[in-house]
Design a protein that fits this description.
The complex is a heterodimer of chains A (257) and B (396).
Chain A: E1 3-15, E2 18-31, E3 35-39, H1 46-54, E4 59-68, E5 71-72, H2 78-84, E6 86-89, E7 96-100, H3 101-113, H4 119-132, E8 143-144, H5 150-164, E9 168-172, H6 180-194, E10 200-204, E11 218-223, E12 226-231, H7 234-242, H8 245-256
Parallel strand pairs in A: 3-10, 3-11, 6-9, 9-10
Antiparallel strand pairs in A: 1-2, 1-4, 4-5, 7-8, 11-12
Chain B: E1 4-9, E2 13-17, E3 74-79, E4 84-89, H1 104-112, E5 115-121, E6 131-136, E7 143-152, E8 157-165, E9 169-178, E10 183-190, E11 197-206, E12 211-218, E13 223-232, E14 238-247, E15 252-261, E16 267-276, E17 282-291, E18 298-308, E19 314-323, E20 328-339, H2 342-349, H3 355-371, H4 377-394
Parallel strand pairs in B: 5-7, 6-8, 7-9, 8-10, 9-11, 10-12, 11-13, 12-14, 13-15, 14-16, 15-17, 16-18, 17-19, 18-20
Antiparallel strand pairs in B: 1-2, 1-19, 3-6, 4-5
Helix pairs in contact in B: 2-3, 3-4
The structure holds adenosine-5'-triphosphate and magnesium ion.
Amino acid sequence: MATLEIKDLHAEVETEEGSKEILTGVNLTVSSGETHAFMGPNGSGKSTLAYALAGHPKYNVTSGSVLLDGEEVLEMSVDERARAGLFLAMQYPVEVPGVSMSNFLRSAATATRGEAPQIRHWVKEVKQAMGNLEIDESFSERSVNEGFSGGEKKRHEILQLDLLKPKFAVLDETDSGLDVDALRVVSDGINRYTEDGDKGVLLITHYTRILEHIKPDYVHVFVGGRVVESGGPELADELEKSGYVRFAGKKEAAAQS
Amino acid sequence: MTESTLETTGPSGLEEHSHGGTEVPPASRGHRFTSYDVEAFEVPGGREEDWRFTPMKRLHGLHDGSAAATGSLQVEVGGDSAARVETVGRDDQRLGTAGAPADRIAAQAWCSFTEATVVTVPKDTQPADAIVVTVHGPGRERTAYGHIQVRAEPLSESVVVLDYRGSGVIGENVELIAEDSARLSVITIHDFENDATQVSSEHVHLGKDAVFRHFAVSLGGDLVRVNTKVSYGDRGGDADMLGVYFSDKGQHLEHRLLMDHSQPNCRSNVTYKGALQGDSARSVWIGDVLIQAAAENTETFELNRNLVLTEGARADSVPNLEIETGEIVGAGHASAIGRFDDEQLFYLQARGIPYDQARRLVVRGFFGEILQKITVAEIRERLEAAIDEELAAAGT
Ligand SMILES: Nc1ncnc2c1ncn2[C@@H]1O[C@H](COP(=O)(O)OP(=O)(O)OP(=O)(O)O)[C@@H](O)[C@H]1O
Ligand SMILES: [Mg+2]
């Protein structure tokens, strides 16, 4: 069994007016087989947490620790983290002109698996994965994410999740911008990824509608750069009904203590 | 006129400048004075519009008459044997028909060359292989003036490679002529040794319904300045001008284009992409398009993109469109200078792809759109390898 432990993580970002602390002490442990939903108001730092875990150079981790099976993730480069089994499905996937999707997927699979996949087997694998996500074959020859619609980008993030099969996946608002059908297709993709019970998911979302397809084991409320309350699925329902008002005060209280 | 510069200075970071508002643009950049007489041009001091980006000291006197010829270019023609190859004297009547010198160095070269190479693709022939013209510089600390003419006769269809190598200081004129209904592709590769200086004026002339494809590739040399003017002799001319350049530490690579639309129903498309890396790597791209009053139904577009890979490099890009008729199909231009995209690198790395490979993928992707249009596989592979090598040389 694998674990991802986030301990007292603080991170800041460089702004015009100097550095600004965004993560103010995140604590969370995700074990394989678990799905954790992460909900919080705009600007609370959810994406920042996702980027900090993946090692984006813009975010400066000032203290804390992130252990993947006991290994310090914060000491690894971005690509090392991915090869160690950490995956980030981005809220806004990046366009890479001139690099074909097929070349990209193959390079990524080669890197994370440690050897180039057998070509015949690989072609079948990709075809199957694309079919499952209802992605047209013609996308293989297009540049990575270039000119893709918002929904198409999200499907491709899950396509990569399916092919790379990381130990832990952080899914940053993979559900936003999807219509009902796409939401089902993408959710099915995520459920396929977790079906063997050996993967851990950190699902960042604003809406409970994806939680009808993907059952979380835990729900965390994220406000002011930290987890302010954790509970079961019922917590999501409360958030849906009453919003974050009840938690707004907690941030201040936590900051004073 | 919009003009953009991206200069990366020292470790403190990047500065973006935009000038253009402060300088008075010349009345017309399209209508240019030309002459075969070197004395008709004043010695440029470096502040003139045409010279303000060029480091004059590194011209080794090509511009002020002090660079006497002390060597010669060695020109070999190989590849497909269908072409007629001649070495001719100054008095050959065919020379100079594609266009007259438009600056002092071009005029100096015109007045100074002793023999010219004329490569003719005969009428109605379609050589299967590329015709390869290899030009060796005169050698270190020597100066040479040259003249080359490539003439594609009517209805011919051919690919010609101009492959520049070696050392020394070179001033030259190159005439590229596609006669009526000819299809001519020219791949020009400037791949000199580190010391070389080349100032080249390319005069492209298109006949009726001629189709011209140009791939300009600049990799080596201390200073390479190429002026390319395309003129249309009749209706239906179609020119695609593609370029890639990779400027390293200390290199100055300058490309100046003028698409002179003087005839109706012609088309031009200019796409140049450059990458820069290392201290004082410089690139300059000037793209002038002139649509004269007679040039109705012109269709033209030009684009320049630069990728600044490291700090200490500087790219200048100046697109300029002058339109003298309202009856055009379409005209546009765009220019952009970007830093090496950290987001793209991050995305690839976040999928496990190591830094060096991710960097290679992004840069290859940037140039790929142009490189994939090079139909000669050998050359395409050579350029891909050269770009990989440039990237590897920079280290990380
Ligand atoms: N590069 C940056 N420069 C300045 N501020 C930043 C930067 N990146 C993030 N921030 C700020 O950090 C805070 C947290 O942003 P983040 O994107 O992590 O929020 P989020 O919880 O993901 O919000 P959303 O729900 O809208 O996606 C915001 O106030 C944001 O403006
Ligand atoms: Mg976010």
